[in-house]
Amino acid sequence: MYMRAFNLSDFYFIPVEKEPPYMCCVVKLSDELIRQGNKLVDEALIKFKEYRALNPNTIKPYYTNEVMVLGGNNAPRVDAKEFIDAHDDGSLLQI
Q1: 93 within some domain
Q2: Which terminal residue of the chain has fewer beta carbons within 10 Å of its beta carbon, N or C?
Q3: What's the structural domain count of the chain?
């Protein structure tokens, strides 16, 4: 979705080692991976739109007043599809 929001056609990662000598490289996503990602985004947006139409007043359950810390050994491992299925209330995005 980031690529769509900014009308980008290419996506690059620049991984950097955390310790000296801090080696790095540039990694470009293939067109096929981008197509696969766009397909998943399209499917998720359809689900969100359908749910939103049925539940327009649903409270967003994934927002919290607590500070969420990401990173380190306690970083949550989240599968995108599992996250969407678990939080599929249609309010992440409005179409």
Answers
A1: no
A2: C
A3: 1
Taking only the tens place, the pLDDT of each residue in 14-35 is 999 999 999 999 999 999 999 9
Looking at the whole model, is its pTM more than 0.85?
Answer: no
Residue 91 lies inside a defined structural domain of this protein: no
Rg of the chain, C-alpha, whole Å: 17
Coil, strand, or helix at residue 13? Answer: strand
Residue ranges making up the domain that contains 41: 2-86
Mean pLDDT across the chain: 76
Token readout for 88 is 């599929």
How many Cα atoms are found within 13 Å in the side-chain-facing hemisphere of 80?
A: 6
Q: Which of 57, 45, 34, 52 is nearest to 90 (CA)?
A: 52
Please check whether residue 82 lies inside any domain of the structure: yes
Angle of CA points 64, 68, 72, to nearest 5° = 160
Please name which of 43, 33, 32, 30 lies closest in space to residue 81, comparing C-alpha atoms. Answer: 43
